[in-house]
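quick one before i forget lol
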Amino acid sequence: MSPELVILPPQTELSRRWAQRLAQEVPEVSVVLAEDQTSAVRALSAGAPAAFGTLPADLLRHAGRLKWLQSPMAAPPAGYFYPALAQHPVVVTNLRGTYHDHVATHAVAMLLSLARNLHRYHGFQAQHRWQQLRDPAGILHLPEAVVLIVGLGAIGAEIARLLEPFGSTVLGTDARLNASPPGVDEFGGPDSLDKFLARADAVILTVPHTPSTENLIDGPRLQKFKRGALLVNIGRGPVVDIDAVSGALVTGQIRGAALDVFPTEPLDPTHPLWDQPGAILTPHVAAVGPYTEDRRFSVFRDNTRRFLGGESLVNVVDKSSWF
């Protein structure tokens, strides 16, 4: 009998499509599309060794024989990991590295828009208003700028590569790397963050939400920014205190902020960030682009084959740190 892989609820058009593709491309596995909690409990209780999706605590207690869980994302949404899951022997893998080019391009596009005040002009255009911003102090001249990338995984490394032609000095921090990728002029661990912040004209966050990055950029840390610096976040929403960011824009502690992710999504329509002239807000779309679905599915499919063959899985997560 073929081992079962459970596609956990709730089901979406994407999960249904992937279930069908997996059944066709890896016929050695029996794919169970669990439409609801009851069917998921039945499959897990029967000893299914593999699953795809989100596994909350009320399902985990039925997953005594589960050996592998494939996360549907590159970085976990809030609440994906919890103590019982971290202590369970199940191996969790994610989909990191599958859309780093799209996210990096989005981050650099946001930085360029802030650097040249394109977001301000877009607001003027909506008002049919001809207004020139002619103060050179309001322009970030990239050949002379210091850009800090917080998180030098696949996305951060690609951002550094894209920035190289602009001639910026690139600083970088990362909790896992021992050496910096190409294009990073100075590198340090997380303990280098504050000293780099004091020098940076722009800060780009690519880090996932983990216990150590939650509210990494809060009110006190924003005070350590170089006054008038720019902030870009394409990592995870809970990494940034958006109320503090809004306040820092009002006081001029930072000159601009571009955010693609938020602690709660969608962003509350009454939040003051919507009306901040120094803010660019996009609705968690940095990963949108061609080939993303095929790349993500390929990791899932190849890990399924590896699991069935007893091989090492790719993108294994450290469950204690959520990434």
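fyi The chain has a mean pLDDT of 97.
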